[in-house]
């Protein structure tokens, strides 16, 4: 049996934390445990990469953070956000997801116009002020570095965009809600290298205003854009440190083996 | 692997080959003399199977096309005879309410049947659609898998009930109630509509369930991740994406209602009178056909006039089909 106890887990001052998990267990179907005793702190205005082999629990972990796993998983332990446990009974999960947005692996714009995609959530909540909506659309698209490419075709279907543009549109759509944290579940894995590089530039710019947690299979990507990296193995967070340390001086034997490409 | 290991492995392989444990093929044994030139140029058993298989399916298709063609041709020839041989005016046929073909070509007006057919069809679809969409939403979005499959089997059961049973139920339950509430005979469009409502509900529901299930999961996920509630997701994404297919479902339901004969005939009253309200007896294209076809002699005007009604039904069914295709094409965009 491998040693799955954490090799090194970095921590931050309370004022620097955007989101914290404490002894998080996630079980599917009530019996199959996918994640064990995970306690991680995410630093504000930084990009944290979650790496690990398939089935290591990193996506499960990510999806628990804004309760996208509600229907399939049981979560034990705490996820603290502004002093509140996101799983406590009185949390309004819809408002929570507006503060903790999510971008998925496959670009998933709605079959609506670019404009309607971005205003979707705002209009669903009854926002009718066209001027305000237009401002938010422009701001969100600019923040996602998509404005210049689409400003003349806001009323065209979002499905006509390229995969990379669609993914940046999905980011813009999440940004329209002014979240604090953006969770990204392998956001570039369906994209070609050029689109990936544009997406990475976008994420790097967003770091100034947002906290990002990103699952990635691509270790070069983690090394390129993330500030901190957490390595997951078989449902355990093995090591969590600055990206530089993880890639140049890993403490755990499994981390080192994974980084060197021995498995996964 | 060390050098010694490699040597050992070689020995093991060589021994296995010597003792015939491994089928050892020498490359030089395979050559031109092994290729059967004859076989390459001659049709084999599989080639014949291919011809036969293709031939049979072409034959079956050919027969079916012939069958459909002859049905359309037959209905067309008889239906058009009213206009070409008996010189009934087409405009009069479509716009006059005077239906008494036995009295001569000036009394062949089908407007009553046309209006009544359209009314029962549209009204039943109008009433059935909201219920069908609600049931389908419940089945796909809210119900547990168990409950959904239970409902599914009930819907299949409803589809399987013969129309004469629906007609009988309408005659015994619906007509007396309408009579008690509105007076009159109780027969009429309202009774027909209520019976058809129950009959098209399962058709529209099960096709709507398919439509909703076809909405990709990632749209729901995207919506949920943006903080939308389940209901917002349904109303703003799921139903929107499914709309073309739901419309198709409604049109299939309407096609069924339009073509239904027996059940409607049992509750509609079968009087060729213009329906000025929903509770006076009237007559649809189909009910007129089923009630009158036995009373006419082949080749007479009265008979041809009925064929004209049948032709109208055929044209309408073609129209419904084209509509479905057009909506499907638009939805695919």
Write structural notes for this entry.
The complex is a heterodimer of chains A (264) and B (333). By secondary structure, chain A is of the alpha/beta class. Chain A has helices at residues 58-65, 93-99, 114-124, 130-143, 147-150, 163-175, 193-206, 219-225, 243-248, 253-259; strands at 8-9, 17-28, 32-38, 41-43, 47-52, 73-81, 84-85, 100-103, 181-185, 211-215, 228-233, 236-242. Helix content of chain A is 34%, strand content 26%. The longest helix of chain A has 14 residues, at 130-143. Chain B folds into three domains: 3-30; 40-88; 101-332, MetI-like (MetI-like fold, Orthogonal Bundle), CATH 1.10.3720.10. Chain B has 333 residues and is an all-alpha fold. Classes of the chains: A alpha/beta (264), B mainly alpha (333).
Quick overview of this protein structure:
In chain A, 34% of the residues lie in helices and 26% in strands. Chain A is of the alpha/beta class. In chain A, 45% of the residues are buried.
Which labels suit this protein?
heterodimer; A: 264 residues; seven-stranded mixed sheet; B: 333 residues; 0% strand
């Amino acid at each position: 049996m491998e040693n799955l106890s954490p090799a090194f887990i970095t921590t931050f001052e309370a004022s620097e934390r955007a989101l914290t998990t404490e002894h998080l267990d996630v079980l599917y179907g009530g019996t199959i445990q996918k994640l064990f005793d995970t306690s991680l702190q995410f630093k504000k205005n930084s990009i944290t990469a979650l790496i690990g082999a398939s089935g290591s629990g990193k996506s499960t972990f990510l999806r628990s953070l804004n309760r996208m796993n509600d229907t399939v998983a049981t979560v034990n332990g705490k996820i603290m956000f502004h002093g509140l446990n996101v799983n406590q009974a009185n949390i309004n999960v819809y408002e929570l997801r507006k503060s903790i947005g999510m971008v998925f692996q496959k670009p998933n714009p709605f079959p609506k116009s670019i404009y309607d995609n971005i205003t979707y959530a705002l209009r669903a909540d009854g926002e009718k002020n066209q001027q305000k909506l237009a401002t938010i659309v422009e701001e969100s698209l600019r923040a996602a570095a998509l404005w210049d490419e689409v400003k003349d075709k806001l009323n065209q279907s979002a499905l006509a965009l390229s995969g990379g543009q669609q993914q940046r549109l999905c980011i813009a759509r999440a940004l329209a809600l002014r979240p604090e944290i953006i969770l990204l579940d392998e956001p570039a894995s369906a994209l070609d290298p050029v689109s990936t590089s544009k997406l990475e530039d976008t994420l790097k710019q967003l770091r100034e205003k947002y906290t990002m947690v990103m699952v990635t299979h691509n270790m070069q990507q983690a090394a390129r854009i993330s500030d901190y990296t957490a390595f997951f193995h078989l449902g355990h967070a093995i090591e969590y440190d600055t990206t530089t340390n993880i890639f140049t001086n890993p403490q755990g034997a499994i981390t080192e083996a994974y980084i060197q490409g021995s498995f996964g | 692997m060390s050098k010694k290991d490699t040597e050992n492995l070689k020995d093991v392989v060589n021994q296995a080959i010597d003792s015939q444990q491994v089928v050892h093929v020498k490359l030089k044994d395979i050559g031109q003399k092994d290729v059967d030139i004859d076989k390459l140029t001659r049709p084999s058993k599989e080639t014949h199977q291919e011809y036969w298989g293709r031939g049979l399916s072409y034959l079956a298709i050919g027969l079916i096309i012939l069958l459909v063609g002859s049905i359309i041709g037959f209905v067309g020839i008889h239906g058009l005879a009213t206009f070409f041989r008996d010189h009934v005016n087409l405009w009069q046929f479509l716009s006059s309410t005077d239906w008494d073909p036995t009295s001569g070509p000036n009394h062949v007006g089908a407007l009553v049947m046309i209006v009544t057919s359209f009314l029962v069809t549209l009204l039943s679809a109008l009433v059935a659609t909201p219920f069908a969409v609600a049931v389908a939403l419940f089945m796909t979005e809210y119900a547990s898998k168990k409950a959904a499959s239970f409902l599914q089997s009930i819907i299949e059961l409803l589809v399987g009930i013969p129309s004469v049973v629906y007609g009988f139920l309408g005659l015994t339950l619906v007509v007396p109630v309408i009579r008690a509430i509105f007076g009159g005979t109780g027969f009429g469009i309202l009774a027909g509509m209520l019976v058809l409502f129950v009959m098209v509900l399962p058709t529209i529901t099960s096709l709507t369930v398919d439509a909703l299930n076809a909405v990709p999961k990632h749209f729901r996920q995207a919506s949920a991740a943006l903080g939308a509630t389940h209901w917002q997701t349904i109303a703003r994404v799921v139903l929107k994406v499914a709309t073309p297919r739901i419309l198709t479902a409604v049109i299939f339901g309407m096609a069924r209602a339009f073509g239904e004969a027996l059940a409607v005939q049992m509750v509609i009253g079968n009087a060729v009178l213009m329906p000025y309200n929903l509770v006076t007896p009237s007559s649809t294209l189909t009910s007129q056909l089923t009630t009158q076809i036995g009373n006419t002699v082949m080749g007479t005007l009265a008979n041809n006039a009925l064929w004209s009604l049948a032709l109208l039904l055929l044209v309408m069914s073609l129209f419904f089909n084209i509509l479905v295709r057009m909506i499907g094409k638009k939805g695919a965009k």
